[in-house]
Amino acid sequence: MRNKLIFISLFFILMAGLPLSFTLYGTQTSPEKPQTEQSADSEAEAAARLCGSGFCDEAVKAAAIIARTNAAAGSGSGEGAGDISDKELYERVKNIYHSDEEILSYSGKPVFIPASSCSSGSTEKSSSLEYLDGVASPWDAFSENYSGALSCEGVSMSGIDYLCRTGMSAEEALLWYLPRLRIESECKG
User: Fold this and answer.
1) CA dihedral 172, 174, 179, 183 (to 10 degrees)
2) Three-state SS for 174?
């Protein structure tokens, strides 16, 4: 009888500790990525959310520069939260994102860059972000997302894609929309 009581007591102790052991050890089915790799992947996801699936590689590079800049500015990279449904686009973005280290800066510091899928033919000067000017973006009229009522501060991603398809580099297209900013290499510490 004593052995049965010991067995039952041990059984209950083990059963009480089982959920804790799953929490501590059982839920990690794969090794965790280092924080910097997780961060870079989330920034690549943010860049993918800025792109259309048909964007050319230079426009994807511009989106990667915007996402990297926003992360360096501390603006986070989780904008447009949700899963990336176009896995091929996400892999393309990841490859381009990890192949470069450029960011945009204003007065030597990375700054937040707002981006919209399209504008109404021009971007607007920002009242809160002194480094954003309004610029012409007439090529947005070629986008399927075009509407004369759209408001856009910062960068029109359809415009970036159009400019890159017509021969501009990602950097040149970004500087069209962001003439007060500079392109710099990000220093990774």
Assistant:
1) -80
2) helix
Cβ distance 70 to 108 under 8 Å?
Answer: no
Q: Strand pairing of 115-116 and 155-156?
A: parallel
**Burial of residue 104, with CB atoms counted within 10 A of its CB: 0-12 exposed, 13-18 middle, 19 or more buried:** buried
Is it the case that residue 21 has pLDDT exceeding 50?
Answer: no
Asked if residue 97 has pLDDT above 90, the reply is no
Question: Residue 20: which residues within 8 A CB-CB, separation 6 or more?
Answer: none
Task: Return the domain boundaries, the chain.
Answer: 35-185
Length of the chain counted residue by residue: 189
Element (H, E) at 105: strand 102-106
**pLDDT number for residue 3:** 62
Gap between the Cα atoms of 54 and 152, Å rounded = 21
Distance CA 173, CA 120 (A): 18
Report the C-alpha gap between 53 and 50 in whole angstroms: 10
